């Protein structure tokens, strides 16, 4: 068995301080990170749990612009709201810092200067979009236009959120500035780049060969795919005025790119927590185990880019594991902050005061560990009523209430153990190791299920022994049964704490005992005979139909409001000349073959007869709307003279034109009657 690490540094992804946090954030990142850290503390390991607000980047400035305030006012508001939400849900950070702090600016600047002095960057002059009216260069997210892949008119300069395709601003059709609405122009600008291609061989050895067995399949697969496609230099600076200023000559008016400065926030937060060099062992000592908890949208940054930065610096350890989760959906639909389709943590506690642990339980039991999963209010109610109330709560309540009823609330003595008693105590003693092994391997859902098996064991034992009947004929045997049951109950004070800390604390008060260390949990004599219990109280309460129906109705009202908003036609785009329109070659084609693109959810590869000798291949992000076989034979409208573009290794030669309803459903643009393939659209 390998030696245990001397210490642990556990980080949770820095949330953007441009809005509140929702259940998807908690389920994907912060809850598993908290469970893991609380478990390590119970094992008496040396661990620091690090997080903070990510307060730089374009989303902050966009929010500030919309609200008519400064970026600092935005981050101050949401840093406080997010921090309060985490505390209310028992997320036990050792520090929750922020990247607008002085310590962070100094740490990020020093990191950049070290790489700059060591010649780790390359300088490149490139053309980037510039808004002449706003008199500034535009970050990718300040540019919107038509996606060349799916035709979405509101694709961003870095990604189309409709089809998921990664983009560069120059790939957008008819780009426009979000600041002025004008068409931006290209101007030259100089930036510093981290040459990721120089680290490709090392990353292949470190990840593809070195972490094949111990990293989660979703993490490993995404990393391998990125490396197999080949890595390119990535800019570490940006033309913005909000962020950490570039600390070298020529860096005036530029800041460190948020993807570069944000992960350094883990280091700067640790420095705030442990000043005067005490932080260094947690980031520089080989005996430290570094674990990053993130969502799947951050895998590339934490597994490829940040490790390359650390490797280039040369003084820091690398992450041992990055147990990223997939996404959590809500009532069958993707969580969306822009559509208000979410359960916000701060709002949940207004509707369910004192029930943070119920949400922690449901989100862990339904965690998206290996694939996207779905949260529904009906499932929330069922898990609370059937598992927390009827299983765990029922066992604890019966054990404590019967002890008060028959033995004045004092733990009765055991007068000889039967075979059944010994078997229950033996099984109880095995649970800490089994649950611990699952937590060590980041299998939090399985660990919680294992813990609930302990209460199922207790309920079966009570049901089999029937102490409420036994008391009439054998008080001594009744005392032994309740003595055994109370030992099981006491085990929960420690074993439940990582998952449901408030419930564990309430149980400890009820049993008049404190949590112990993890190895001590499951001891057969945790509560000695004669130990006085406090009054019994319900650990959990039933959630009624009307309560969850109100939550469902709130979501239905949100969906209706979104539909009404979408029913209003979008504003007309900037006028174009007739000559510009004439440059677009629109034709009618017939789809002769269609198939899904391997390893994608949204892409179809289409062969379209456009009247030429050979059909044209078009890749389109419509796989979630149409079955491939249903498209064969359909006539469609095609933008023929769109510049060819390689998508997932396939050369796409054109773009299908689609109509989109307010609910996001796509429809084919078709002639009213069949026409010859290649016919022009006039």
UniProtKB/TrEMBL annotation:
Say what the protein does.
Is required not only for elongation of protein synthesis but also for the initiation of all mRNA translation through initiator tRNA(fMet) aminoacylation.
Give the motif span ('KMSKS' region): 334-338
Q: Which family does it belong to?
A: Belongs to the class-I aminoacyl-tRNA synthetase family. MetG type 1 subfamily.
- Per its UniProt record, what Gene3D superfamilies does this chain match? HUPs, Isoleucyl-tRNA Synthetase, Domain 1, Methionyl-tRNA synthetase, Zn-domain, Nucleic acid-binding proteins
- Top EC group: ligase
- Which cofactor does this sequence's record say it needs? Zn(2+)
Q: What PANTHER family would the database entry show?
A: METHIONINE--TRNA LIGASE, METHIONINE--TRNA LIGASE, CYTOPLASMIC
Q: Which InterPro entries match?
A: aa-tRNA-synth_I_CS (IPR001412), Anticodon_Met (IPR041872), Met-tRNA-synth_bsu_C (IPR004495), Met-tRNA_ligase_1 (IPR023458), Met-tRNA_synth (IPR014758), Methionyl/Leucyl_tRNA_Synth (IPR015413), MetRS_core (IPR033911), MetRS_Zn (IPR029038)
Complex and partners:
Homodimer.
This enzyme catalyses: tRNA(Met) + L-methionine + ATP = L-methionyl-tRNA(Met) + AMP + diphosphate
Q: Which organism is it from?
A: Hymenobacter rubripertinctus
Please report the name of this protein according to its UniProt entry.
Methionine--tRNA ligase
Q: Give any Gene Ontology cellular component.
A: cytosol
Report keywords, A-Z.
Aminoacyl-tRNA synthetase, ATP-binding, Cytoplasm, Ligase, Metal-binding, Nucleotide-binding, Protein biosynthesis, RNA-binding, tRNA-binding, Zinc
Instruction: Write out the annotated subcellular location.
Output: Cytoplasm
What's the name of its gene?
metG
